[in-house]
Amino acid sequence: RSVLRDELPGAEVMVISNREPYIHNLEDGKVMLQRPASGLVTALEPIMRACGGTWIAHGSGSADQSMVDENDHLQVPPEAPAYTLRRLWLSDEEQDGYYYGFANEGMWPLCHIAFVRPTFRASDWEQYVAVNRKFADAIIAEARTPNPVVLVQDYHFALLPKMVRERLPEATIITFWHIPWPNPEVFSICPWKEEILSGLLGSSILGFHTQFHCINFLDSVDRFLESHIDREHSTVRAGNSTTLVRPYPISIEWPPTALASQPPADECCESVRRKYGIPIGTKLAVGVERFDYTKGIADRFHAVGSLLEAHPEWIGRFTLLQVAAPTRSRLAAYRETQVEAETAAAAVNERFGRNGWVPIILVPKHHEPEDVFTLFRAADVCLVSSLHDGMNLVAKEFVASRDDEDGVLVLSTFAGASRELQEALIVNPYDIRSMGEALHMGLSMPAEQRRERMRLMREMVSEHNIYFWAGRMLLDAARMRKRRNIEYSIE
Ligand code: F6P
Known about the structure:
GO terms for molecular function: alpha,alpha-trehalose-phosphate synthase (UDP-forming) activity. This protein is of the alpha/beta class.
């Protein structure tokens, strides 16, 4: 962890994201905290706890500005304050255009291969520009030094790096894109492609999860922007700024905080089965996601149907417990995803359920990290069947939760995590029958093989943890800062 501070001693660190790490809700007159279902927050929060600084995010809870000090600066986490959370409040119009509209009906389907048509509206774009400017103003207002390290997160803020660069030319701007980057043909659908590219190229460093996404980005720049690309060093020079474009596969805290309070795995097995009425002694698979159409939730339910059809010996002896947090529900595509999944679960349950037993239990509810970890520790199999996913931290959290070195991970080949977790059973979620077979294989796997695979995956995640991720980016940033100082001294 010390690399965070050692590499950039004295540097002011700021994180910018749409999603805030702690949502403050008002319940029965009391302020209650919720930790959001967000890979981005899972990854960045331990970093901020370790190195301190300011996190600027969109305030989304029902306990709004009036509940805290007038500048809306909160010290978090509440139990051991380590950094400042500065929340920005958005009007309904801003929220509709910037978040639901441009970010989630435009950029999200543009970047994920899930066959949902991206929708681009000029009015959404206007709000996206305005909200990016609002966050840029907040960065300038919060910055105490001329050269802070600004960590810009995700597709909500493609324009922010350039806006900040223009006003804080000495800042080190590290932008991380948490979702895939499409190929140039797909990217060309976006009516504001040049603005998006040149906005991102205000960054000192631009990170993606995989080399493949870096190549897609460089190819998009090559096609649509006047620039010099040095493919050998993976840099782009546009105007008078240079951006290093590199893969930094994101990860999780090791050991995760949520593990500390967990009972032994066999107690988790019992308590989860008791809670959901799953017969003791039968096998359990779990799925944990947001209700997003990229996650392939209905597809995995069909795979359960296929498993039970091909291997009827599992009827009555296996359950898939799927928890899914409702998300972005104002958008039709998300409401339809939930209906489609519920319909698929009901069909499989109707066909195979008997004597009070059902193969699929679907819980459409947000779960706090500790509860998710108990589910992971109770499971024989964790099923991640994303149709497309930048990384997928659920897969890494499952591995981190299993300090008993047991459990099988079934993982989509279209999640970035499949590059690193090669001992998982890798599946194509479009191939329902093979996904059913992978489930059968996972449920029948001998203990020694489960242990060997889990040990190797744990080794990988424990070494390539979130501090390693941040450390590599900050090391690259420190090198750039030193090189720039040398260049200045030569001039
Ligand atoms: O990790 C990708 C991501 O889109 C994050 O940006 C985001 O925090 C998370 O998924 C959940 O989405 P949302 O913040 O829109 O609920």
